[in-house]
Design a protein that fits this description.
The complex is a heterodimer of chains A (143) and B (798).
Chain A (H helix, E strand, L loop, with lengths): L2 H20 L6 H12 L4 H26 L3 H14 L5 H27 L24
Helix pairs in contact in A: 1-2, 1-3, 2-3, 2-5, 3-5
Chain B lengths: L1 H19 L9 H5 L17 E6 L5 E6 L5 E4 L3 H27 L4 H4 L4 H9 L2 H11 L4 H20 L7 H6 L8 H16 L4 H19 L52 E6 L10 E9 L1 E2 L4 E7 L2 E7 L8 E4 L2 E7 L5 E5 L9 E4 L2 E4 L1 E8 L5 E8 L5 E3 L12 E5 L7 H10 L3 H8 L7 E7 L4 E6 L14 E2 L19 E3 L5 E4 L21 H11 L5 H8 L5 H14 L7 H11 L11 H16 L15 H10 L17 H15 L7 H5 L4 E2 L28 E3 L2 E5 L6 E5 L17 H5 L4 E3 L5 H9 L1
Parallel strand pairs in B: 3-7, 6-23, 11-20
Antiparallel strand pairs in B: 1-2, 2-3, 4-5, 4-22, 5-24, 5-25, 7-8, 8-9, 9-10, 10-18, 11-17, 12-13, 14-15, 16-17, 18-19, 19-21, 25-26, 26-27
Classes of the chains: A mainly alpha (143), B alpha+beta (798).
């Protein structure tokens, strides 16, 4: 499987798993899903972090955009005003989007990365990786 | 190495999630709160269409159909009354779960469980006045009252069905913000809710303030400030009406407690703002274009989000009523059925009396009544504090009621220990009145229904399709000796036999089809001074006269005329006081231009407090400064005092210009009314600038969320005219909480109504505040009233 496909698959698994399980389980199920995916589908740290980040951030962004548009921005406007009051700085709905996406993305990213690290050198799924012990070599594509 | 990094990261991740899942102070758990699957985004309601149809499965196995109309008003159709109240509970919780629970927590003295330490003082006060205790006792009595019990239990089961159906991600947003979950509903909570209303309407009194005022100012001044029957009163029962010979009179003289001045800390005062009240009236066919009655009602309350009201229709065999409900209480509270319409205003009669306690000795465990000493009944109140310890408070009950203020509560050493007798903490079943009114067919049924209503005393206005109109002040009112209940009195002097005398219900002020063709009430005196029983209270002197003046002249009235009167902004205070003020001001021709400009604007004013006008701002600002200067004697740290009604000052500047209190105590000169009018005019002019706002922005009518900190869920500067003492009583924080007109013109009732908020309690819904702007503009929604399920289904197909 080409690495791009594998990456996309990973993002999809995290996204679908987190959204569906989120219907019944606590919100932090996103961490478990991302961690397990990272554990079984490890890759380089940056790749895992990004997959986890996007795996949560993207569906969250889609969900809130869809909800917010259907709601005509009524609630996001009120919540933004609420935070503006208590933080004494003026924030608007875009800030809520950024906070939401960052929270989801960071937890997803860190969890997926963590899963990969916990897996150590064991290769569960995927080919041609973790051939060497020791530190990763960082290869720069463009010299 | 990699695994070690992994383990470290894993630990950090757990910590991060823990932090994001934990509320910090007033901030909710950030992770959960922002999660689109669990947090606030879940409450962003996408519903655009007000109409909806759903069925509810009842424990009986029957199905109830609910049709939401185009105004988002649910119409409930059940095959029997058990299912009807079950569905009412379910639908109410669906719209207002958080609110109904919060308000019952308030009444039960359990706010600390939600907001933590800052709720303790409030909880202690609410427990000391005994709402929870009386609700428990009332519920125990319902064991013998199968009808009441079954209504409450079915309603409760409906609420609980809805609570059980909620996933934690679907909880109302206030639970998510404040970090708690709903508990199961109980029948007790329904009773608490009605006690909460009784507290709202009768939770203030002036015994302590009057006692202080009498001591400070002496009898002559006192009687001018707080007369039992002021000059211009226009009572509910027209003056001159003959009253029957009383059956329960007592005689004697009121004794006022001797001792120091009393002071209540600011936070214990629960004084409804001056002018808080309501309007209702009914015209007989002789006054209307159709020849049939029209009934109007607009109860004035502190306006809040979500609204105290929820509009609904309840239909079952033998039951068909529409109007507003109180979330948490079964039945329609104000509305109409196929035959009759009814509405309420607050009776405003004082039903809260305070007694000073005389102990037998320093042990303070026996108190004196007459020549005997009695032990207190102790009730230990356990207040649970969020994230903290429990607080225990022992409340001592006397034979007349609880000791609210003592060494343990209030703390100030100048307190005398005070026991409170209050009709709202006595067992009663007001719910039954609404149940029977919902089903009433005629005027006899109305009177029978009212017999269950004890507290708060309310003016029940009535009209029916046969053309009758009536009004009755109903409540269980103690028989008082002259000035009884006006001051703090020694408990030792109470006559235990006399204290249990009540005015018989058939002697409560009542009138049917009066000659003048209308009945009306606006919190004024129920009667003139020929009524055989003594009473006093904080009555209103301006709205009612305006209403009666308009109604007297009205011929061939229509529902539109009634709407206009409910939205009438005529300031009777200004109309009576301003000409006197302008005359006494006697502004000279050489006065500065600014003075002349303001003077001109005021003299040309038509006394209408319309939202976009400047003149009302000028007048009320002037009036405020006049009050500050006149009542400078009231500004003292050692005693709590009550400012006299605005009406009193408007009389004094006209007819008693040399009145002792016009003198400013800090100046050597002896000021008169004219001096204060000039001085206050200068004060007002000095504050006037080009930026002085129009009336709407000056008074800032606002509707706050029940949690005042949630300002983002509130609305301010609502574009509405009017003020207190004005028929359209839209004041700073209170106003017409539900405007309703019921017209019997077509032989059957047709109503219109609106309240300032919306049907949904969810700040994330389009139906949370969509009625505010039309309400402010004086518009109404037609109150849709289906004859039966078929008609409703026909409607929902359209």
């Amino acid at each position: 499987m080409p690495p791009v496909f594998q990456f996309v698959l990973k993002v999809l698994i995290i996204a679908v798993g987190a959204v569906i399980l989120g219907i019944w389980l606590p919100w932090y199920i996103i961490a478990v899903v991302a961690l397990l995916t990272g554990f079984f589908m490890g890759n380089k740290p940056g790749n895992n972090f990004l997959a986890g980040f996007l795996g949560i951030a993207l569906p969250w962004l889609i969900m809130i955009t869809w909800k917010d548009i259907a709601n005509n921005g009524i609630l996001s406007g009120r919540i933004a005003a609420l935070f503006s009051e208590s933080l004494s700085i003026s924030i608007g709905w875009p800030a809520l989007y950024i906070i939401t996406v960052l929270i989801g993305g960071m937890i997803g990213g860190l969890s997926c990365l963590c899963g990969d690290l916990l897996a150590g050198e064991t290769n569960y799924i995927g080919k041609g990786r973790r051939s060497k012990k020791g530190m990763y070599k960082v290869k720069l594509k463009y010299k | 190495m990699k695994r070690i990094l992994g383990i470290i990261l894993f630990a950090l991740l757990i910590l991060l999630i823990y932090v994001l899942n934990t509320p910090m102070g007033a901030t909710p758990a950030i992770g959960r709160f922002f999660s689109p699957t669990h947090g606030f985004w879940k409450n962003a309601d996408g519903r655009k269409d007000a109409r909806e149809r759903l069925t509810i499965k009842c424990p009986s196995g029957n199905k109830v159909t609910v049709v939401y109309d185009e105004h988002r008003v649910p119409h409930i159709f059940a095959s029997n009354e058990d299912d009807l109240f079950f569905a009412q509970g379910y639908i109410t919780a669906r719209e207002r779960l958080w609110q109904m629970e919060f308000q019952t927590h308030f009444a039960a003295g359990r706010i600390s469980e939600i907001v933590g330490e800052k709720g303790i003082e409030l909880d202690r006060y609410n427990r000391r006045i005994g709402m929870a205790k009386v609700a428990e006792e009332t519920f125990r009595d319902f064991a013998d009252d199968t009808l009441s019990l079954s209504i409450l239990e079915n309603y409760t089961a409906g609420v609980n069905k809805y609570i059980r159906s909620l996933k934690s991600s679907e909880l109302p947003i206030e639970y998510k913000l404040l970090g708690y979950k709903p508990e199961p509903w109980t029948p007790l909570k329904c009773i608490l809710l009605l006690k909460y209303m009784a507290n709202t309407l009768t939770g203030g009194d002036t015994d302590l303030e009057y006692t202080n005022a009498l001591r400070i100012f002496g009898r002559d001044v006192f009687d001018k400030l707080y007369p039992d029957f002021p000059q211009d009163q226009d009572p509910i029962i027209p003056a001159g009406t003959k009253f029957a010979r009383p059956q329960e009179l007592v005689s004697g003289n009121q004794q006022v407690s001797a001792g120091t001045l009393y002071k209540i800390p600011e936070k214990h005062q629960f004084e409804p703002p001056a002018g808080l009240g309501s309007n209702n009236w009914a015209l007989s066919g002789t006054k209307t274009a159709s020849g049939k009655p029209i009934l109007s009602n607009d109860p004035h309350l502190v306006l809040s989000f979500p609204s105290i009201w929820l509009q609904m229709q309840l239909h079952a065999p033998g039951y068909n009523a529409v109007g507003v409900t109180i979330p948490g209480a079964p039945g329609i509270i104000i509305g109409h059925n196929e035959n009759i319409a009814w509405g309420v205003t607050n009776g405003t009669v004082d039903v809260r009396d305070w007694y000073s306690i005389q102990y037998k000795n320093d042990n303070k465990n026996l108190y004196r009544i007459g020549d005997s000493y009695y032990p207190f009944q102790n009730r230990v109140e356990n207040i649970i504090v969020k994230n903290g310890t429990n607080v225990r408070d022992t409340v001592r009950w006397t034979l007349v009621g609880p000791v609210v203020y003592d060494k343990g509560f209030g703390k100030n050493k100048e307190y005398e220990h005070l026991a409170m007798r209050w009709q709202a903490n006595v067992k009663s079943n007001e719910m039954m009145t609404f149940y029977l009114l919902n089903k009433a067919e005629n005027h006899q049924d109305y009177l029978l229904a009212l017999n269950h209503f004890e507290c708060p005393a309310q003016n029940f206005v009535y009209a029916d399709r046969s053309g009758q109109i009536a009004i009755k002040q109903q409540g269980k009112l103690p028989v008082h000796i002259k000035e009884g209940g006006k001051f703090i009195t020694p408990l030792a002097n109470v006559d235990l036999n006399a204290i249990n005398a009540f005015i018989p219900f058939n002697e409560n002020p009542y009138i049917l089809n009066p000659e003048r063709g209308f009945v009306s009430s606006a919190n004024q005196h129920p009667t003139d001074d020929t009524y055989p029983y003594y009473y006093q209270g904080s009555f209103e002197y301006q709205r009612n006269r305006r209403i009666n003046n308009v109604l007297k002249d009205l011929k061939k009235a229509t529902a539109e005329d009634m709407q206009a009167l409910q939205n009438d902004n005529y300031s009777m205070l200004a109309a009576e006081a301003l000409p006197v003020m302008l005359e006494k001001l006697a502004l000279k021709g050489n006065a500065p231009e600014k003075h002349k400009k303001i003077h001109k604007s005021l003299s040309e004013w038509n006394y209408m407090a319309d939202e976009e006008m400047l003149a009302p701002t000028l007048f009320y600002e002037w009036w405020k400064h006049l009050e500050i200067l006149t009542w400078d004697e009231f500004d003292r740290d050692d005693a709590t005092l009550e400012l006299p009604n605005a009406y009193i000052l408007s009389r004094l500047i006209k007819s008693d210009t040399g009145f002792a209190l016009f003198d400013i105590k800090d100046t050597p000169a002896k000021e008169t009314a004219a001096d204060l009018i000039r001085l206050s005019f200068e004060d007002m002019v000095a504050q006037f600038t080009e930026e002085t706002p129009d009336w709407r922005h000056y008074k800032n009518s606002r509707i706050m969320h029940l949690v005042p900190q949630l300002t983002a869920f509130s609305r301010t500067h609502i574009p509405v005219g009017g003020y207190n003492h004005i028929v359209n009583a839209a004041s700073e924080i209170w106003g017409p909480s539900w405007r309703m007109i019921v017209d019997f013109g077509k032989g059957k009732p047709e109503a219109s109504g609106i309240y300032p908020a919306g049907q949904s309690g969810n700040p994330g819904s389009r139906f949370y505040d969509n009625w505010i702007d039309p309400w402010a503009a004086g518009q109404y929604n037609p109150v849709i009233f289906f004859k039966n399920l078929d008609e409703a289904l026909q409607y929902s197909k359209k």
